[in-house]
Task: inverse folding
């Protein structure tokens, strides 16, 4: 077995176990920290797929940015402001039925799809290609995404600010 | 790969295990003597003698200190979160050490010569924040928690000027690979990116921009390593020692090691981006000084000089207040780097 295959299974195991810990942990901060291992291992999967730029963007954006804000928020609520976050299981039976349904559909889709496997993808200069694509063919979606983000940013700043009477 | 180890041992798994070994040894030795160096530098600046008891110059001081730390019992307070408390120091050090993978020590020795070297460095070193947060939260101690929060606020803010001032060089060079950035600056001091990189006489307009970028990159990386004047995260007069409060023995030493390892790592990045990397300052005038072994010497010399400047600043400047820190980042450094970015873009279009 080539060691990339072993690596894949190790990463997959980390992802599944840590994702389960995110869901089943009673402590919210523990869940947030478990998410770190999930996201980091996912970037490892991207590396195995030879998508180096996406792997690093995953680390930069999700691990280095979003996750830190998330942990920050969770920590603030429990320790600094003394707000008890409730972690309880509600509506166990309906959610169980619903999620088992989704899992069945997903497994069915995964096994019935005919996957196109391409070998020997060229991993050289992915950034150049992505950059050219972003500023030519996909310029409009790119700009729209940035405007949406800007609107969200301004909106959250508006909400966070206290309105003076 | 541009790595001498693959030439010597072939392209197999053993080689990839061997490649990081010299870097690890270097980091450990560097940390030992940087601690001593820091104490000596601080002593000279404050007109003292510094450690001189272990032998004539105190050369064994930190080795003995480390031995003492190894002997110490690791005390874990009762109400900490045991798992994360133990895990945090290693995450902090690992994230810094992973950054060394892309530092070009010589034209024939670099961990991984990947296309996205610089991006990788910024991405991977930002993981250290998670370790700091973990340490701060799991200690179950208000000083640790506030220290951790300040660290995160500081590092997340200063990542922006760091990246923006590095992008200036990337725009001029057209590559993110650290090895290619170093290769591009061949041919003496005036081809380093601090003086606008290789180019014709027109680049004279670039020199002020690039000098400002260098200073900003140095400042913001200094802020990311959390050292004085930006050491609000440990601020001993208000927070005791920030996230380190509850750590003892080798676990504390691990944080210390990470800090010193990061000092050299960021110096290495500033060196590679602006100060010519492993290039000899004399260019090809003296070809002997540009052989691979001497390249290691130049890289280490430049990096260690920047580490010295960091120590110098630490013992000369007082600590800034948190609002001054944030004002400096958001109101001064980021606008200046954006203007730099614009001007360099203009230069690239016009020439």
Result:
């Amino acid at each position: 077995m080539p060691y990339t295959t072993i690596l894949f299974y190790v990463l997959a195991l980390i992802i599944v176990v840590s994702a389960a810990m995110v869901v089943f942990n009673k402590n919210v901060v523990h869940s947030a920290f478990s998410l770190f291992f999930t996201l980091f291992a996912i970037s490892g999967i991207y590396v195995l797929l030879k998508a180096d730029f996406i792997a690093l963007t995953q680390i930069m954006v999700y691990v280095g940015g979003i996750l830190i804000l998330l942990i920050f928020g969770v920590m603030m609520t429990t320790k600094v402001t003394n707000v008890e976050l409730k972690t309880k299981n509600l509506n166990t039976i309906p959610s169980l039925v619903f999620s088992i349904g989704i899992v069945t559909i997903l497994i069915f889709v995964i096994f019935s799809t005919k996957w196109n496997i391409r070998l020997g993808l060229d991993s050289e200069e992915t950034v150049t290609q992505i950059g050219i694509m972003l500023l030519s063919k996909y310029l409009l979606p790119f700009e729209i995404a940035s405007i949406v983000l800007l609107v969200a940013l301004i909106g959250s700043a508006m909400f966070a600010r206290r309105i003076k009477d | 790969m541009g790595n001498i180890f693959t030439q010597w041992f072939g392209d197999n798994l053993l080689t990839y295990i061997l490649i990081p070994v010299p870097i690890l040894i270097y980091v450990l030795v560097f940390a030992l003597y940087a601690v001593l160096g820091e104490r000596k530098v601080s002593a000279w600046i404050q007109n003292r003698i510094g450690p001189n008891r272990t032998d004539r110059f105190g050369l064994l001081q930190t080795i003995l200190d480390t031995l003492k730390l190894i002997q110490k019992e690791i005390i874990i307070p009762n109400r900490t979160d045991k798992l994360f408390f133990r895990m945090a120091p290693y995450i902090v050090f690992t994230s810094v050490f992973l950054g060394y993978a892309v530092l070009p020590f010589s034209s024939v020795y670099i961990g991984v010569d990947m296309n996205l070297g610089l991006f990788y460095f910024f991405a991977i070193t930002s993981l250290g924040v998670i370790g700091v947060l973990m340490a701060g939260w799991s200690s179950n101690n208000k000083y640790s928690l506030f220290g951790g929060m300040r660290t995160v606020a500081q590092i997340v803010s200063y990542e922006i000027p760091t990246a923006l001032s590095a992008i200036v060089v990337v725009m001029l060079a057209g590559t993110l690979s650290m090895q290619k950035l170093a290769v591009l600056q061949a041919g003496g001091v005036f081809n380093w990116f601090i003086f606008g990189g290789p180019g014709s006489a027109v680049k004279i307009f670039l020199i002020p921009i690039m000098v400002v970028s260098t200073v900003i990159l140095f400042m913001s990386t200094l802020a990311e390593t959390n050292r004085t004047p930006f050491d609000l995260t440990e601020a001993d007069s208000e927070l005791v020692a920030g996230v380190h409060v509850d750590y003892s023995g080798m676990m504390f030493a691990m944080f210390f090691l990470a800090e010193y390892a990061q000092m050299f790592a960021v110096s290495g990045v500033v060196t590679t981006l602006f100060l010519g990397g492993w290039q000899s300052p004399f260019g090809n005038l003296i070809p002997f000084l540009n052989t691979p072994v001497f390249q290691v010497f130049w890289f280490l010399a430049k990096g260690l000089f920047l580490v010295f400047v960091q120590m110098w600043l630490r013992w000369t400047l007082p600590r800034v207040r948190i609002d001054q820190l944030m004002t400096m980042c958001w109101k001064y450094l980021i606008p200046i780097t954006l203007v730099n970015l614009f001007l360099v873009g203009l230069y690239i279009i016009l020439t």
In short: The CA atoms of residues 144 and 243 of chain B lie 4 Å apart. The longest helix of chain B spans residues 142-173. The beta strands of chain B are 104-106, 109-110. Chain B is about 65% helix and 0% strand.
